[in-house]
Amino acid sequence: MTSPENTSSFGRIVRGTGPGLLLAHGAGGGIDANYGPIMDGLAAHRTVVGPDFPGTGRTPRSDVPLTLDGLADGLVAAADEEGVDTFAVSGYSLGSAVAVRIAARHPERVTALVLTAGFARPNPRFRLAARLWRELLAEDDGHAKLAAYVSLIGMGAPALDAVPQDALDAALKQAAATIPPGTDDHVELAERVDVTADLAGIRVPTLVISTAYDTLVTPRLHRELADGIPGAEWAGLESGHLPFAERPGEWLELINAFLN
């Protein structure tokens, strides 16, 4: 039973049956955008709870600044409301830091972590990228520019080089039209995240998936995350920062193989 103080305001998708799997998506993304391409595979043998952060998907934008603790506790409360007592957590990008904080604040609930394209804290390069992201978003006509910028730094060079021009133009137009209203809130939080103090206390099996061609959250940051968690396993994925768009089948296989 969920007590009133632990009620989650996060809208969510719930799929499947079996052991629990809680999803934490990335900044400016959403459950459908970041996990939709692999949702069927994740839910084949698990109860998947995928909450949307405030300002994206099914969740209204927050009227106060986001906090890592608030996101972590909101996701756990969503699992509570769905009757899922224990769960693995799959975190992508900013969601990796959220997943680590969930494990730190609710260790009795978490059975495993899968952290993809993640970071424990931003470095100057990441902060520069985030600053440009927010500046473009603030411009009156910035959505088209932002879609191009995020595609340029988000997709790995091999994948982006192979996209036909007409397909790229269509994808950019779609991306510009669907930027979530809470994107600035998410990116602002990503600029100040720091879970380095949480890492050494993680005591559950952990897999860090490094997106090898990532120019937004670079493999150096993935390595810092893995090195800080005792016993963390490491897997490489030949993808940029968008594995759900570039290598969804391989990404799903890595997650399922580890959780199984």
Characterization of this structure:
- With 260 residues, the protein is α/β, with parallel strands linked by helices.
- It has 13 helices and seven strands.
- The protein has helices at 31-35, 39-43, 68-81, 94-105, 124-138, 142-154, 157-161, 165-177, 183-192, 196-199, 219-228, 243-246, 248-259; strands at residues 12-15, 20-24, 47-51, 87-92, 110-116, 206-211, 233-237.
- Strands 1-3-2-4-5-6-7 form a seven-stranded mixed β-sheet, sandwiched between helices.
- Helix 5 (124-138) runs antiparallel to helix 6 and helix 6 (142-154) crosses helix 8 (165-177).
- It is globular.
- Residues 1-5 have low confidence and may be disordered.
